[in-house]
Amino acid sequence: MGLTLAEKILSQRAGREVRAGELVVVEVDQVMVVDSIAGSFFKRLEQLGATPRFPEKVAIVIDHVAPAANVEVAKAQKEIREWGNRHGCRVFDVGRGICHQVLVEEGLARPGGIVLGSDSHSTTYGGIACFGTGMGATDIALAAASGRTWLRVPETVKVTFKGRLAPGTTAKDAALEMVRVLTADGATYMSVEIHLVDGAESLTRSQRLTLANLTVEAGAKCGLVVPSGEILELYEIPDWLYPDPDATYAKEVEIDLAALTPRISVPFYVDNVEEVARVKGKRVDQVFVGTCTNGRLDDLHEVAAILKGRKVAPGVRMLVIPASSQVLEAAAADGTLLTLLQAGATIGTPGCGPCMGRHQGVLAPGEVCVSTSNRNFRGRMGAADAEIYLASPRVAAASAVAGYITTPEELEVGRA
Q1: In 3-state terms, what secondary structure has residue 287?
Q2: Distance CA 157, CA 259 (A)
Q3: C-beta separation of 286 from 368 below 8 A
Q4: Which residues 6+ apart lie within 8 Å of 41 measured at CB?
Q5: All structural domains of the chain
Q6: What CA–CA distance (Å, rounded) separates 416 from 408?
Q7: With contact defined as beta carbons under 8 Å apart, do 186 and 58 qualify?
Q8: DSSP H or E segment with residue 152
Q9: pLDDT for residue 413
Q10: What is the pLDDT of residues 71-108, one digit of tens each?
């Protein structure tokens, strides 16, 4: 029997054919450390009596609380800069952006590679067919010290998206539908292998990153989008970086993009996904556009197109935080930022923003937020009883204008 995409990547790196269930030791291309776990990472290395074996393969990104929110955080970030300089590792400082976006932009994540990140959404790299997975401080430190890691080769769930996105829908809607179908633990320690067929190949790199990002919300070890379309233009794809036609899958799911309607994840679980129409009219206090899920330039373009000539509703706070400095610069150059500002949005420093509830827009008790992020767990963005609804940038923008959850299409009906 043939090999899945995850088995192909790990076999290539192991130097032999490996299959689901086997334990392998493989070299890694990049070890990514975020600011919130850097201190623990440093301590683990110190306990090992080790330093990074390949400093050029270690990147530390200050993104989770950027800029520093208090003195203790500022001290920790100062330590990151000093440690990185001392050991010759890359440090992406405040304002450069979210770790996953930055590693893709910098070319540190590549098709067929292996990236270990101290952040659960390291599955994002799978959008370009890079085996990305999240690990804790100890495993990350061991990988930095040795240049290698051990893995159990995951079983694979095959998810096939077919057709072109229906009008008014986005890759975020497709990703939420995928999580709904798989459920929160439906792909635990598995590889979610995403196939795009019958027109779905037209999905851009940004859209593929969104799909891969949310695979961890089904419990996945990694999410890998089979290379096609724009990816073939942006990268040199090795001939071996494709699953075999007779690969073995634990289960298979098919989603018709043409039949998709706008989706929204309702508190307090990501797989609690409904059609937007089911919750339309829910009052909103805050709208947040950004994160590693939907903070890229195309996302900001979608928001600006809806906000142009409109204003954010009275009583609603709209925060827009670009995923990286490159996204921010491009949005400034093409007029997108001006449109957002004129509509009443607030622009934040590139980074994670309020996604993990530590700064830049945390929620008060009882507040409701529509967010383009990836998690809506209780207390995720502040108060334990605040409600987070996960949606696409289009739905987020429309809800900011209306003051309640709605779609751009409903806004047009109201305007007519």
Answers
A1: strand
A2: 22
A3: yes
A4: 33, 118, 137, 140, 141, 144
A5: 1-22+153-260 (3.40.1060.10), 26-150 (3.30.499.10), 265-415 (3.30.499.10)
A6: 13
A7: no
A8: strand 148-152
A9: 59
A10: 999 999 999 999 999 999 999 999 999 999 999 999 99
Q: Which pair of structure tokens corresponds to residue 411? A: 């806004």
Phi-psi region of 309 (alpha: psi -120 to 50; beta: other; left: phi over 0): left
DSSP element (H, E) containing 32: strand 30-34
d(CA 49, CA 350): 35
Instruction: Count the Cβ atoms, other than its own, within 10 Å of residue 200.
Output: 24
Q: What is the pLDDT of residue 73?
A: 95
Q: Which residues lie below 8 Å from residue 366, measured CB to CB, with a gap of 6+?
A: 383, 385, 386
| DSSP states along 207-254 | HHHHHHHGGGGGT-SEEEEPP-THHHHHS---TT-S--TTB--SEEEE
pLDDT tens track for 154-164: 999 999 999 99
The DSSP code sequence of 194-218 is EEEETTGGG--HHHHHHHHHGGGGG
Helix pair 297-307, 325-333: axis angle to 10 deg: 40
Supply the pLDDT for residue 415: 58
Q: 361: left (phi > 0), else alpha (psi -120 to 50), else beta?
A: left
Could you give the C-alpha distances from 85 to 59, 79, 92, 103, in angstroms and in order? Answer: 11, 10, 11, 19
* Regions of the chain with pLDDT less than 50: 416
Reference 285, options 307, 312, 311; nearest CA is: 312
Which residue in this structure is represented by tokens 């990236």? Answer: 115
| CB-neighbour burial class of residue 248 (10 A; exposed 0-12, middle 13-18, buried 19+) | middle
Res 233: pLDDT: 96
Can you give the pLDDT at residue 358? 86
Buried/exposed 158-175: b ≥16 CB within 10 Å, e otherwise: bbbbbbebbebbbbbbbb
Tokens of 401: 């204008």
User: Can you spell out the DSSP letters for 169-199?
Assistant: --HHHHHHHHHHHH-TTTTTTEEEEEEEETT
114-117 and 30-34: which strand pairing?
A: parallel
Residue type, 414: G
Q: In a 3-state reduction of DSSP, which class is residue 365?
A: coil
Contact between 324 and 98 under an 8 Å Cβ cutoff? The reply is yes
Q: Identify the pLDDT of residue 410.
A: 86
